[in-house]
Fold this sequence. Notes:
It is a single chain. The model has no long low-confidence stretch (mean pLDDT about 85). It is built from 6 helices and no strands. About 55% of the residues lie in helices and about 0% in strands. It has helices at about 1-10, 15-25, 35-45, 50-60, 80-85, 95-100. The chain is mainly α.
Amino acid sequence: MRLGRSHLSRYMRAPNYRNSWLRQGFREEDLTGEGSERLAEGLVAWGSEDDIRGRVREHLSAGADQVCVQVVTDGGAEDLREMWRSLSPLCYSDRHRRQR
Length: 100
């Protein structure tokens, strides 16, 4: 969660993200300091690859056409491409795939 909160900090300064999160039900106190635990848990999928796949599926099941995945790691950048490739097929709804 430390990495996730650190990653979110740049977005917390952007009015468009803040306003979107407020419309989604987060509160101003969620967007102060390093961001609340509630904010990080709501926006950051973490854990095993299966855990992350499950969170992506939740968004698609809720009606998203596509889910943007940003891999956040304190490891080297050499593994990022493989991580993105393993998750990318999952990030589009069936409806979105048919339209492409």
